[in-house]
Design brief:
The protein is α+β, with helices and mostly antiparallel strands. It folds into three domains: about 80 residues, no CATH class; about 240 residues, TIM Barrel (Alpha-Beta Barrel), CATH 3.20.20; about 100 residues, Immunoglobulin-like (Sandwich). Helices cover about 25% and strands about 20% of the residues. The chain is built from eight helices and 17 strands. The strands form four sheets. It has a five-stranded parallel beta sheet with strand order 4-5-6-7-8. It has a five-stranded antiparallel beta sheet with strand order 9-11-12-17-14. A four-stranded antiparallel beta sheet has the order 10-13-16-15, with no helix packed on it. α3 links the parallel β5 and β6. α4 packs antiparallel against α5 and α6 runs parallel beside α7. The radius of gyration is 25 Å and the shape is elongated. The relative contact order is 0.08. The model has no long low-confidence stretch (mean pLDDT about 90).
């Protein structure tokens, strides 16, 4: 989409959607007034109006069909006018323009908001073109990721990332997408509203959907940018109870530890490290999740803030364990009695999973409930023989209790962990 560059005749900034043809429009002048019936052939086109650079001044590049249709893809986004991204000449112009931006401003990546509005095959061509151009000028790790925010996000994300081996052609799409499926599951599971089984089911579905895109189980880590909050949220993950302001601090840090341990590229929304907690209790507006740090009273960028320190420690743990960045991922069964094992089906429950890279296993266990718990967690029987000792690489709480040595449970191997309420532990053998 571009800006509100023209008026619809008889309607103004926006017009009802029409399925075919184009509506008559007048392009705005530098004062914002509708003045030109065509964007082409204007003598001395105003620099503070229209769409620039000059290559974009073609009427055929703009859909001019009013606001979006029923699926929210075809049409303007409110008053932001939609490009005809299925026009090949426009595709090439957009690609050249953004390649120029890379060269001119030394960009290291692009966030595309939002991928689902782009008509195929532009998303794949654009991602591949940015990657190849960046490589041609010496940028080996140029990164593109986009937003795919809808009810079928798992299936739709697979259309844009990597290369689908069932599809014609050999073009590799954008590098990653924002992990909205995890965003919704993490908030429900890590706040105790849904059982950990729901998160495990989400990843099982992803493995099925992505089987034609990824070439190995661990490779999924590079295709998803994971997050707990973003600017479109109506409430941040971190909630402050006015009657007990610090009551849920451990809930947030446990969630961050989980986020940094799951497959994906973890992204911390600004202000999380400064304990920002804006939310709309009515769930209607997102402005309260966009609090300003600049001008905030006190020390707005406080590196001694307890959340800053906690996130820093968790990030260091991730950096120290390659399995957390590249490893395969397996949700683990847990047991209170050491006999009956299953992925946690209660809410609040215990989230348990392993990341395995080569012969290294990192076990992550998160107690979502506010009461302490001791329980047995399955580990890999080949990698972890009886007697193996896991150490606590990181906990979101002080003075964590180390787990017991690995024991045999009717042929399965398990480790007994001891967790405080709302505690997350990252465990490794080395």
């Amino acid at each position: 989409h571009t800006g509100d560059a023209f008026d619809y005749d008889g309607f103004g900034h926006t017009a009802p959607h029409q399925d075919s043809g184009t509506l008559p429009v007048h392009w705005r002048d530098a004062s914002g007034n509708p003045a030109f019936s065509s964007i082409e052939g204007i003598t001395s086109p105003p620099e503070d109006a229209l769409v620039w650079p000059l290559e974009f001044q073609k009427d055929a590049y703009y859909r001019r069909q009013g606001v979006t249709d029923g699926d929210g893809v075809i049409g303007d986004f409110s008053s932001l006018k939609q490009f005809r991204t299925d026009n090949v000449d426009l595709e090439n112009a957009l690609i050249r323009a953004y390649q120029y931006v890379i060269a001119r401003f030394d960009c290291d990546g692009f966030r595309i908001d939002t991928l689902r509005y782009l008509q195929p095959p532009l998303p794949l061509i654009f991602g591949n073109s940015m990657r190849e151009y960046a490589l041609s000028i010496g940028k080996k790790n140029f990164f593109t990721f986009g937003e795919v925010f809808d009810n079928n996000a798992e299936e739709d994300i697979a259309k844009f990332i990597g290369r689908n081996t069932n599809a014609d052609g050999d073009i590799v799409g954008v590098d990653a997408a924002l992990d909205f499926p995890l965003f919704f599951q993490a908030k429900a599971v890590l706040k105790g509203f849904a059982a950990p089984q729901a998160m495990a089911d989400m990843y099982a579905l992803r493995k099925t959907v992505e089987q034609q895109v990824v070439s190995s189980h661990g490779e999924a880590s590079r295709f998803f940018v994971t997050f707990l909050d973003n600017h479109d949220s109506k409430a941040r993950f971190y909630y402050v109870d006015p009657a007990n302001p610090d009551a849920l601090d451990d809930q947030l840090t446990a969630a961050v530890a989980c986020l940094f341990s799951l497959q994906g590229i973890p992204c911390v929304y600004y202000g999380t490290e400064q304990q920002l907690h804006g939310n709309d209790p009515n769930g209607q507006i997102d402005e309260l999740c966009r609090e300003a740090l600049w001008g905030k009273p006190g020390t707005p960028f406080d590196e001694s803030n307890p959340f800053y320190v906690a996130i820093q420690k968790i990030a260091q743990a991730r950096a120290s364990q390659p399995a957390l960045r590249y490893g395969r991922q397996y949700f683990r069964q847990v047991s209170g009695d050491g006999t009956d094992f299953a992925i946690s089906t209660t809410a609040p429950g215990v989230v348990a999973f392993s990341r395995i890279l080569n012969d290294e296993e990192v076990l992550v266990v998160v107690n979502v409930a506010d009461a302490a718990i001791d329980l047995h967690v399955i580990v890999d029987a080949v990698l972890q023989p009886v007697g193996t000792v896991f150490k606590v690489v990181c906990s979101n709480q002080n003075a964590p209790t180390a787990p017991d040595a690995v024991e045999d449970h009717s042929g399965a191997h398990a480790v007994r962990v001891h967790l405080k309420g709302r505690e997350a532990q990252i465990l490794a053998t080395s």
